[in-house]
Design goal:
The protein is α+β, with helices and mostly antiparallel strands and about 120 residues long. The chain has a single domain, classed as Winged helix-like DNA-binding domain superfamily/Winged helix DNA-binding domain (Arc Repressor Mutant, subunit A). It is built from four helices and five strands. Helix 1 crosses helix 3. About 25% of the residues are buried. The N terminus is likely disordered.
Length: about 120
């Protein structure tokens, strides 16, 4: 795996996996919300990868600041309670994913898995 300090590849392993999971989870949809994304990341195979919710949201924010993700807040009143933000991969994020040596894919049963 490429090092996060490599100037040509600035992502950490967690950032790679989250970016790939957003791409795989939001395929064919407008965007993916954080909670369902967290559930899919928690179920990733191989099972040696885990991330708590606070870390996930920090990584999502960092990827957005870096320009690899875009997000939008749901229209007011769309969901009861707290506002929901949906995430999707930007064109720059798709370019970064093509450079990645880690891929997050969906199997025939619809489950996400990590391929190294």
């Amino acid at each position: 795996m490429m090092a996060a300090t490599d100037s040509n590849y600035p992502l950490s392993p967690k950032e790679e996996i989250v970016l790939g999971a957003v791409a795989a989870s939001s395929k064919g949809r407008k965007g993916v919300h954080g909670y369902p994304l967290a559930q899919e990341i928690d179920a990733l195979r191989p099972r040696h990868f885990s991330m708590n919710y606070a870390t996930l949201y920090r990584v999502l924010n960092r990827l957005e600041v870096q320009g690899y993700l875009r997000s939008e807040l749901a229209k007011k009143g769309t969901y009861p309670g707290r506002s929901r933000r949906s995430y999707r991969v930007s064109p720059e994020g798709r370019k970064m994913l093509r450079k990645s040596e880690v891929a997050v894919k969906r199997d025939d049963d619809g489950e996400l898995y990590v391929e190294f």
